[in-house]
């Protein structure tokens, strides 16, 4: 347990939170991202190895190529549940049946704005139409979860009525989608709490990151009673992306003491695989998985870390298969340089250390090879003057 744990215990907090990964669907909807068949299968396998509870693998209605890939993933017989994403229309659901899906997610816009713009319809139509689509899927023997698109801009009384209506048709989970990322944590807690109390099935939060609040809103939803979270690897997704799996998972484990059953050691290789396959670079500052997430250069920080690692960490990097990296550059101090030299089996006097530090501060990010050459040059100069 990290020393940064918050005292945020609430009677609403679940003992465990379940993760529905939508990297292969919503993540792929990011601009200029199109996973290959091989890439999708590789990502799906690593998601399974990481312990995801459910994987939303794609949209069968997109065509034969997508259907073939989804079939291939379904044949892998994962422990994780595999779901498909469908618009609220019979043709989409039929396409999911065609690939052999047994769990389908059906989505319909629920805000007045989107209902008018997309369908020229109103809330009354949405209620009857979604209930009909759920019944159609259930009659085919499918398990159904339902997504309320643009829920954060919808009439919340209508959402309760709609959720209760589709639950009567056998829906097993309701997804509340903050489609344009306009919620705040306070409002999220209020709305998710109200929805969770009003229905008998679990609530799933699906947050977008337009204001940088996707992770915070996801955690707020859990505080209010959401048992499922919808995330993507590194937050890959449309516009500014989705709630990132890695910080959500680690915050739940370390700050809330809630179990996730995810293998956090897999997070970094999974993130690199997804970013490689997407063609999107992984930010060095990406929480948990970025190359600088546990890197330090400041001499004051490094000296404190060498004395006690808890001075500048919320949890041990080993929890996620990482370790602290002490970089050398403009802000480095003597203790950091001595530690780095010692890791290479090198010892220096205080005077030599002071001389070396002046050169070290002239550039950033010294490699071991560069440091060895600098040390050797200094040693040769000393020997030449004896």
Strand and helix layout:
Elements: E1 18-21, H1 23-27, H2 37-49, E2 54-56, H3 64-74, E3 81-87, H4 90-99, E4 103-109, H5 112-119, H6 123-139, E5 143-149, H7 156-168, E6 174-178, H8 185-198, E7 203-207, H9 214-223, E8 228-231, H10 245-255, H11 267-278, E9 295-296, H12 299-307, E10 325-326, H13 334-343, H14 350-360, H15 368-384
Parallel strand pairs: 1-2, 1-8, 2-3, 3-4, 4-5, 5-6, 6-7, 7-8, 9-10
Helix pairs in contact: 2-3, 2-11, 3-4, 6-7, 7-8, 8-9, 9-10
CATH topology of the largest domain: TIM Barrel
The CATH superfamily of the largest domain is identified as: Aldolase class I
Widest sheet, order of strands:
1-2-3-4-5-6-7-8
SSE string, helix = H, strand = E?
A: EHHEHEHEHHEHEHEHEHHEHEHHH
- How many discrete domains? 2
CATH class of the largest domain: Alpha Beta
Q: Give the beta-strand count.
A: 10
Termini separation (Å)? 55 Å
Low-confidence runs of at least 5 consecutive residues: none
Number of helices: 15
Major beta-sheet overview: 8 strands, parallel, barrel
Instruction: Decide which structural class fits the backbone.
Output: alpha/beta
Q: What's the architecture of the largest domain in CATH terms?
A: Alpha-Beta Barrel
Classify the beta-strand content into a percent band: 5-15%
Calculate the mean pLDDT score and round it: 92
Computed Rg = 25 Å
Coarse shape: elongated
Task: Indicate the percent of residues in helices.
Answer: 40-55%
